[in-house]
C-alpha cells in the first residue's frame, strides 16, 4: 500500500461493488471513519481490526456479511457501528467494545442479541436498532432500561400458532 494512504483519517469506499475487505486495510492505523456500505463484501479477514486503534465510526451496512471477525472487539475506539442489511446470525464478537454507543443491526438473521452488549460495565451502548430480525425476545438488560431500543421480533411459537389458524 502506498505510504500516502497510511495517514488517511476518513475513507469512503461506499457503492463500489467491492467483494473483498483487503488485508491491507490494517496499514490505515490513523483511520477514524470508514464507509464501506453498499458493496458485496462477504468476509472480513481476521487481523485487520486490531490495527485500527483510532477507528470510531464504521458503516458496513448493505453488504453480504455472514459473520464478523472474532477480533473486531480489539478495535476499542469504535463508538458507531452500522451492520444493518447483511446476513449476520451472530454478533458476539462485538462483546467487549467499551466505547460503543450506537449499534445498528437491522435486517440481518439474528435470533438473539448477546446480553453482555447491554451491561453497563461492558460498554456505553445507548442506541441499538435491531428491526426486521427473527429475534426471539429482547435481552432483560434492555427491558430494564438504559438503551434506546428498537426492534421487531417474531416469537416463533406465536408465529406458528398464527399460521395454523
UniProtKB/TrEMBL annotation:
<keyword id="KW-0433">Leucine-rich repeat</keyword>
<dbReference type="InterPro" id="IPR032675">
    <property type="entry name" value="LRR_dom_sf"/>
</dbReference>
<dbReference type="Pfam" id="PF13855">
    <property type="entry name" value="LRR_8"/>
</dbReference>
<dbReference type="Pfam" id="PF12799">
    <property type="entry name" value="LRR_4"/>
</dbReference>
<dbReference type="InterPro" id="IPR003591">
    <property type="entry name" value="Leu-rich_rpt_typical-subtyp"/>
</dbReference>
<dbReference type="InterPro" id="IPR050216">
    <property type="entry name" value="LRR_domain-containing"/>
</dbReference>
<protein>
    <submittedName>
        <fullName>Uncharacterized protein</fullName>
    </submittedName>
</protein>
<dbReference type="InterPro" id="IPR025875">
    <property type="entry name" value="Leu-rich_rpt_4"/>
</dbReference>
<keyword id="KW-0677">Repeat</keyword>
<dbReference type="GO" id="GO:0005737">
    <property type="term" value="C:cytoplasm"/>
</dbReference>
<dbReference type="InterPro" id="IPR001611">
    <property type="entry name" value="Leu-rich_rpt"/>
</dbReference>
Amino acid at each position: 500500500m502506498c505510504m500516502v494512504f497510511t495517514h488517511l483519517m476518513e475513507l469512503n469506499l461506499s457503492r463500489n461493488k467491492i467483494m473483498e475487505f483487503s488485508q491491507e486495510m490494517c496499514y490505515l492505523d490513523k483511520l477514524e471513519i470508514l464507509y464501506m456500505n453498499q458493496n458485496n463484501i462477504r468476509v472480513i479477514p481476521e487481523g485487520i481490526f486490531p490495527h485500527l486503534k483510532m477507528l470510531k465510526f464504521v458503516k458496513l451496512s448493505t453488504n453480504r456479511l455472514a459473520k464478523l471477525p472474532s477480533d473486531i472487539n480489539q478495535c476499542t475506539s469504535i463508538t458507531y457501528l452500522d451492520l444493518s442489511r447483511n446476513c449476520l446470525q451472530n454478533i458476539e464478537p462485538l462483546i467487549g467494545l467499551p466505547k460503543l454507543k450506537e449499534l445498528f443491526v437491522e435486517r440481518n438473521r439474528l435470533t438473539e442479541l448477546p446480553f453482555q452488549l447491554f451491561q453497563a460495565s461492558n460498554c456505553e451502548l445507548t442506541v441499538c436498532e435491531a428491526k426486521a430480525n427473527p429475534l426471539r425476545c429482547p435481552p432483560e438488560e434492555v427491558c430494564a432500561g438504559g438503551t434506546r431500543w428498537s426492534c421487531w421480533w417474531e416469537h416463533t411459537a406465536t408465529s406458528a400458532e398464527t399460521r395454523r389458524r
